[in-house]
Design brief:
Blueprint lengths: L4 H6 L2 E7 L6 H11 L8 H6 L6 H12 L5 H17 L2 E8 L2 H4 L5 H19 L2 E9 L4 H12 L7 E5 L11 H9 L3 E6 L5 H9 L5 E4 L7 H9 L4 E3 L1 H6 L11 H6 L4 E3 L4 H4 L3 H12 L3 H13 L5 H13 L3
Parallel strand pairs: 1-2, 2-3, 3-4, 4-5, 5-6, 6-7, 7-8
Helix pairs in contact: 5-7, 16-17
Bound molecules: adenine and zinc ion (ZN).
The site of adenine has 11 residues, from helix 4.
Length: 335
């Protein structure tokens, strides 16, 4: 039987790949642009949405950086984060590991602390009001230099208590993980968890570099690892999770059709694949929309859906007791 939306919603799920700046909905963008008196190149919400036609990662990133330009004050980051938590909670997300891109803000003159304080305050309110726990993962923009990444890491070190991990995002091809080997070493030595986008558009070799040079414990996307039998075997053998983002892959033309998405092959190979929304305001949906899309395109069974929910808990940075409790809750929901 096809798993229903209600069944998917009721399963406790963790979201492990979601850029907070990518959850910026056009109506909130207009509101904040207005109150900050920032010029905004669109006339209406409809016009913004109409611009969300992408042919690759870069064509999206150009609009993504333009959108975040209206975020200026602590309250803006608070409102953005709070709105995401409300949506995630409605989809049955019980834990979220949020990416943020400080360089996208500090390069515009917004202080690192303004960004962090606003996100953090919303995470605390969200936990109290919705019961959604969270961790923050700070991403380095890979199109910027190693020096700039080191500077950003130094800022993060001043807030070690509020940032759980580091990641690597933005334009992938031409900016291999090797570029950030020394930055990641310093981050890991400081106790940060390490993850990286790899194999979204970049070749399988980038996934190998992320594992071997950056020593990440999770790969974000990882689609192109499925082109390399050695990597498929390694990801399964070492149980290295992939944070898969189906609607993102469709919108950014990483796959031509969701029916050709490698998710089912990942599960069959024994890889710890998880479902995530990436940039939900830009790609047409939050976590539940992503589950629904792959359920329909790939004819996923209830068992597949349960495996994906369980994987999201297992692959999270949360502690083992919490994971065991959540997995117990998932098992209690099985018929
Ligand atoms: N930044 C926001 N979304 C991203 C994605 N899908 N890939 C790389 N960088 C990103
Ligand atoms: Zn991403």
């Amino acid at each position: 039987m096809t798993p229903t939306d209600d069944f998917i919603r009721a399963l406790p799920k963790a979201e492990l790949h979601m850029h907070i700046e990518g959850s910026f909905e056009p109506d909130l963008m207009f509101e904040i642009a207005g109150r900050n008196d920032v010029e905004f190149p669109f006339e209406s919400v409809e016009e913004v949405r109409a611009a969300y036609e992408f042919e690759n990662l870069q064509s999206f990133l150009d609009i993504y950086y333009q959108g975040m330009n209206v975020l200026r004050h602590e309250r803006d980051f608070y409102d953005l984060t709070y709105a995401y938590l409300e949506r995630a909670h409605a989809d049955g997300v019980v834990h979220t590991e949020i990416f943020f891109d400080p360089q996208g803000h500090t390069e515009r003159g917004v202080a690192f602390e303004t960004v962090l304080d606003g996100i953090w305050r919303a995470l605390r309110d969200g936990e109290r009001e919705f019961g959604v726990s969270s961790s923050l993962i700070m991403c380095f923009l890979r199109h910027h230099s190693e020096v700039d990444a080191f500077r950003t890491l130094d800022q993060a070190l001043e807030h070690r208590d509020r940032i759980a991990g580091v990641g690597l995002d933005s334009s992938e091809v031409g900016h291999p993980p090797a570029k950030f080997e020394r930055v990641f070493r310093k981050a890991r030595e400081a106790g940060f968890a390490a993850v990286a986008h790899a194999g979204e558009e970049g070749p399988p070799a980038y996934v190998r570099e992320a594992l071997d040079l950056l020593q990440v414990t999770r790969i974000d996307h990882g689609n192109r690892a499925m082109e390399a039998p050695d990597l498929i075997a390694r990801l399964a053998e070492e149980q290295i999770p992939l944070t898969v983002c189906p609607l993102s892959n469709l919108k950014l033309c990483v796959v031509d059709d969701l029916r050709n998405h490698p998710l089912k092959r990942m599960l069959k190979a024994g890889i710890v694949a998880t479902i995530n929304s990436d940039d939900p305001a830009y790609f047409g949906g939050y976590v539940l929309d992503n589950f629904r899309a792959v359920r329909d395109a790939l004819a996923l069974s209830a068992q597949d859906i349960v495996t994906l929910a369980r994987n999201s808990i297992t692959a999270s940075l949360a502690d083992e007791d919490w994971k065991a409790r959540r997995i117990g809750e998932i098992e209690a929901l099985l018929p």
